[in-house]
Amino acid sequence: MESAKQFENLTWANLTIIDDELKTVREFDVKSLKYRDLWIVCSQLKIKGVKNSTKEQMIKKLASLQQIEIKYDKIADISDHDEVLGKLHYINFKKILPHDWKNLE
User: Fold this and answer.
1) C-beta contacts of 76-83 below 8 A and 24+ residues apart
2) How many alpha carbons lie under 13 Å from residue 32 in its C-beta half-sphere?
3) Which of 45, 54, 79, 80 is deepest in the core (most CB within 10 A)?
4) Is the pTM of this model over 0.85?
5) 52: helix, strand or coil
6) pLDDT tens track for 29-73
7) How far lies 19's CA from each of 22, 23, 61, in Å?
8) Across 1-105, where does the E strand assignment appear?
9) CA-wise closest residue to 28 among 20, 19, 37
10) Nearest by Cα to 41 from 19, 17, 24, 64
11) How far is residue 82's CA from residue 75's CA, in Å, rounded to a whole number?
């Protein structure tokens, strides 16, 4: 199977998770996928830090990130109606610098 072509334009909606366990990616059973296939899936979904992971670790990471994605979408839907939560989506937390409160006295 040509993995790269099989997983082009892959989205989170193409993953099937049942009981907190990844079962399929598109129409392919996860157990039938090779390490390289899973690596391509992670690459298509822009998941970093899986280069030296085992096949099982990648499967667990995909399942947990899918659940986070679902929870984030729920928060995004709620925040459309809530002004304060809506503003949090525009804050880049990486740019916030920690303060040394002792120097402020």
Assistant:
1) none
2) 9
3) 45
4) no
5) coil
6) 999 999 999 999 988 988 888 888 899 999 998 888 888 887 777
7) 8, 9, 15
8) 15-18, 21-25, 28-29
9) 37
10) 24
11) 10
